[in-house]
Amino acid sequence: MPIYKAPTRDTRFVINEVLQLEQFSQLPGFENAGADMVDAVVEECGKFASEVLAPLNLSGDQQGCTRNADGSVTTPAGFKEAFRLYQEAGWGTLSSPVEFGGQGMPHLLGFVVEEYVATANHAFGMYPGLTAGAVSAILSKASPDLQAKYLHKMVTNQWLGTMNLTEPQCGTDLGLIRTRAVPNIDGSYAITGTKIFISAGEHDLTENIIHLVLAKTPGAPESSKGISLFIVPKIMVDDDGSLGARNAVTCGSLEHKMGIHGNATCVMNYDGATGWMVGEENKGLAAMFIMMNAARLGVGIQGLAQAEVAYQNAVRYAQDRRQGRALTGPAEPQEKADPLFVHPDIRRMLMDAKAFTEGMRAFYLWGGLLVDLSHKAASEEERRLADDMISLLTPVIKGYGTDKGFDTCVQMQQVFGGHGYIEEWGMSQFVRDARIAQIYEGANGVQAMDLVGRKLALNGGRAVQAFFAEVDAACAAVNDKPQLAGLAGQVEKANGELKAATMWFMQNGMTNPNNVGAGAHHYMHMMGIVGLGLMWLKMGAAAIDALAAGTGDKSFYEAKLVTARYFGERFTPDVGALRRKLETGSAAMMELPVEAFATA
Amino acid sequence: MPIYKAPTRDTRFVINEVLQLEQFSQLPGFENAGADMVDAVVEECGKFASEVLAPLNLSGDQQGCTRNADGSVTTPAGFKEAFRLYQEAGWGTLSSPVEFGGQGMPHLLGFVVEEYVATANHAFGMYPGLTAGAVSAILSKASPDLQAKYLHKMVTNQWLGTMNLTEPQCGTDLGLIRTRAVPNIDGSYAITGTKIFISAGEHDLTENIIHLVLAKTPGAPESSKGISLFIVPKIMVDDDGSLGARNAVTCGSLEHKMGIHGNATCVMNYDGATGWMVGEENKGLAAMFIMMNAARLGVGIQGLAQAEVAYQNAVRYAQDRRQGRALTGPAEPQEKADPLFVHPDIRRMLMDAKAFTEGMRAFYLWGGLLVDLSHKAASEEERRLADDMISLLTPVIKGYGTDKGFDTCVQMQQVFGGHGYIEEWGMSQFVRDARIAQIYEGANGVQAMDLVGRKLALNGGRAVQAFFAEVDAACAAVNDKPQLAGLAGQVEKANGELKAATMWFMQNGMTNPNNVGAGAHHYMHMMGIVGLGLMWLKMGAAAIDALAAGTGDKSFYEAKLVTARYFGERFTPDVGALRRKLETGSAAMMELPVEAFATA
Fold first, then answer.
1. Contact A8 B417 (CB under 8 A)
2. How far is A567 from chain B (nearest CA, A)?
């Protein structure tokens, strides 16, 4: 049976010692997020994730969801009760607005909950996972009437929300959707069409489900400029808030997926279902992007999440399993063989995972802080800076985080040898579940294009220049810390490669935009590595300060310094190779005619 | 429904034009392998794989195998009939010895069959797949009596063979096995123990199954020096060759695996089963390595195989699916959207796959030729050279081929976006099936250690020096071909990095062998990339010659030159990064105590 223990010590280290959340205590929403509160939330949530959700992960994968003859969906055994506990404890409401029943705490803390829940049980986490984004869209775009009717129940997770974008003929290119919304005389709309890949589209966890649906009104432009957003409740809500008749929206079937079996991924049929427009006609895509951006950060966290749990189990296996002898001579001669741990290639995989998961945790938590600061920092300048940075980093956290998270799961599965391939050990599930995160909420190629095609050039490159400056400052800031000299040099060099690649895009993208597209994926990975390097510098500095202060926990901080060194040695060299590839441009890539790809 | 069309044109190009098989026609076994015969075998086998085996792949995955109450195993629908056709056509006997019913053709051609069969249906291919290795072990080690009794039926695939190594407590470290073999008075042995992960351990394809089993005789040394090899037939074979009583070996259960569901992976229980020793007592491991080495090359081919079929399906999808517009403006303005093919990031993934699969095909076919030459070349010097080279390259073909093959499957799945995650499209299966190849027949970390710990230093580094010389010669040989100047420079540089890494191992492995272990995986990948670079140089040169000769098929050869250029641009930069990582050694990797990996 796979294990999971929430990495609460590491989370607290990043929040309290690296990001130093207490320095923001004068900002609204931060006043109650002192170190004691952070510690309490982190420990309690960690306990809930490890004790309630993790034990349902493997069984949820094996059982999957069942669509019953009446179109209802039964979730795996235990999910309903676990969700009741989740809802009652308010884990989904931490960073939601107080006026609708939320707790008004920093997003940063909400992100910690997302990490722990997704790590313990990815499929479970997807039920409440999209509701926060739906809430954001309703909050910013829906009429006061709609807000009054839906928000409180959604914020408190009495009802859950969904996102209905994809149709059989389109996913990324939403201009192609065919779902129609025809106005009724009462101001509502009749929605008709088929949506696919709808996570948590139908289930038995809540008494109602609120679908947010993209559709086209009659005569709307053909492109993505003709899309509107609608609220479509599964069960109609009367004006007094009580539940009425069943709406004409049903789950037609469940998808058969590679992983996340415990989540009901539905084909949703809208047969003249009644819906209400959110925001303005033909402006639905903007509203949807509000949901999407929140969701993308969450997906980046999922990449880390599966890597973390896979890593924990691989560490345990590498200690328990004995095969062969250390290259340097028997480590435990009294036993018939040494633990896997003695073998450098096993260590390589575990250290890669350690350097990635800890670095990625710091990276997304910084992202969470930026989200908060973008709304709540004292000056407009600070808010703008934070907003610039998180806009830039969102595709990196999503794309790099999930690519590397998936690779890490595969490596951790490799530690198990043949047993890693057997479902009962759980490693296969981590790999299969992690795989979706590279695909949904915008496949990682879309993230890469969002980064290089939109975010880089925004406001004359203001955001990326700020990122470069942040990294250079972090390198300079450790000047007085010789233990970090190696890492600082490596990160500075990597940052230089990233700057050069940016320049190359500017010089070569004008003549041929394919030159940018051809390097987008590589650029995203370069920025991911530099971003993690930045976090390792900050973590290393915090560790040195703590060691100097003699606050105890010496081995924890010393391990940070060794892992920081390992990161510099084994992650940063890829940045140069990626740059060299990127700077070869698109000529050979785009030259062949389609026929040359046909197999003959 | 996924498609598969055997890449026969590409296979013929490599065999006839790059390796120029006809130049060896004076060697035994090669006389009948002229271009006409090669073409006929390749085309017929391709047809069989595409038309008979590929249509059973997805259904085989969905149905899996069933263990019946009596311990018998039913394979997926269609497998039995397909195997009958396979056996009757003699696809498994191409390169087997004529005296036992084989066709005595070059191994090279047997490898082509392995590729096409594994590509069409990985799980199916594993039934006959291990028999060739079992045959090799029996041929080289078993007594004439045992050979007479078993070889003909096994060579002709009337009976299939298995390899029984792994036990619950050991896989890589076979010194730990517990299965016991107690001598009977008639010279046979009573075998008792449990073996796990036994591919094709039980099935309904053949009337008998011949298990090769590692076990320990009473008083045998505890280590791997105390292992003997036994033949244990499922059904006893009388002296006249007729089948007798059921032996005491049964399938206890089927493993629940991530993939290769169509293959019965069995827990095998030996309850005093009757077996006969193959070769000498306590020398079983050497015999097993004969099976293993043949199998490792076959597994490397499987890495390519799943990448190939995933690539073919991704190419089709990228042509059919329309999303968005080309960055350079609408490519097909009359349609609502352009095909995925116009997007550089889609092209990147497809070109990566094309450069890998075509390069890898050439690499393993060269390996197949080396196997043949190691046995049949005219002079002892040539045989030794070929044997050196294939010994060196076997772990690279297995380890690099399957790592990169798996990654390629994942990228091809990515081309499908959300549909890639849905089982019906078949891309998930390719990923899940490909994953096992990195694990079985020696996990890739074991391959890497075989390469750097054994093969590099053998005979004073004779083999690796020959490899370096071969690469340098190939770079020099294209001096007169300016179209390949870029690639030659890149490969020469990469070869230089590989030489430097080899030197670094020599200088730093003495003081601490962990320095070699810590870089083994990176070294294996470096050599894989350089090896493929070598093949792209040779393919490029052959393409230029063909274009100059005006033999037609111009677009085929021109595509080779573009893909060669792409390979140089996008694959070779990793070699430098891998070297930089490797040369950081093992200090940071091995420094942390075990406790530092515990999650707190």
1. no
2. 9
